[in-house]
Amino acid sequence: MPSFAPSVAPRRPVCPPRRPALPRRGWALGAGLASLLLAASASAGVVRTTDGLVLEGEVVRAADGSVAVTTADGTVRLAAARVASVDEAAGPSAALRAELAAMPAADVEGRFRLALRAEAAGATGVAMDAYASVVDAAPDHAAARRALGYERLGERWVPVAEARRARGLVLWGGAWRLPAEVEEAARAAAASGDASVPADASVADVMRTAATGEPALARAAALRLLAVDEPRRVATAKALLADATPAVRAWACAHLASAADESALRPLVFSAVRDRDPEVRAAAVAAAVSFGHDDVAVPFVKALASEHPGLVANAARALVAVNDPRAVGAIVRRLISHGGGVRAVVEFLNKVSYIRDYDVEIAQAANIANPVIGTAVEGMVFDVKVVDVGMDRTVVETILVDAFNKLTGLKARNAGEAIELYRARVTTWPDFPKVPEPKRHRVTTEKG
Question: How many domains does the chain have?
């Protein structure tokens, strides 16, 4: 039997070991819907959807072929086109969960055997809960720890990701690699468009359900995603950063942060400055920060030099979220150059053409006179300095000053005050090194 062992972020997998407290939503039957339901009473059953989700609970069929399923996470109604099958026999989860609840907490081996049975029966949620209950009673139970995604590091049980990073490895594209290999893979991905693992359309549909579905569907989708290999999950989540629905894009950011795959860092930074929705940008920044790189602020600092005012504003907000004091100098330099474009020459000229002379040639006893055209120029020439448009001065500059204040704790009222305050305290804030330091990757602090 394959072991259920998520490769990263145990206790924060796609579906946590312990069922989260999901918000419940009331499900009221309107008169029209109620008239569609059959007179037969609800019965226990298992409903499988066309995209592979499994829902166990009280099932009621309607005359139009739709199905209403009531689970511990709420009630959801599925259209007939979305229902793949309905098994009117009770599913394994309910009986196994009842058995787990009745089992004494001290019966460690009994709970472990129940976890194995639940995993074999496809009741992944029950299996995770059972493994977690084993660890609660016996923290050094090696098999349960490994099933939950832990490894022993010295005297402690730590998440697999932490153990691998302690050995100097980095997760990239679903594989643990040496830092030098990751640098090479990053350069290759940047050159090729990072298409080593394609996104999966069916997985994308499940992820959209996990992001926007009713609680019962969202939990079923999370369980379904556990069966998808991590490279495909990461590739699909990266593709969903361009989804049309903001809630899906924000969910993809959180999922990529949980996966902690370094290949997601670049697209997350891109979303953090270019996404249209402020909540998605905030989620992307939080995900990028979660990787723990010392230089995560650098791409946002570079974005401050953009000619697009929206990118400058988003980069400034991202730097506030990153909270790296080394960015203060970059913000001030942007304020100093703000409104100062390149110098140019503007001409207001009138040009008049006239015949200045004739070139006379003799050919076959004939005189040929070719006119020489001259041009008279009059007017004015100005050496000017281009000033940015009013939006930059009133909106972007305000955002830059606000970022300066939040990073420094000062209260500059305008760009001029921010520049003067910085010059008076320039030694207070560090700057980025001229030569980049070696990257330091995230170290998980969760205790085993």
Answer: 4
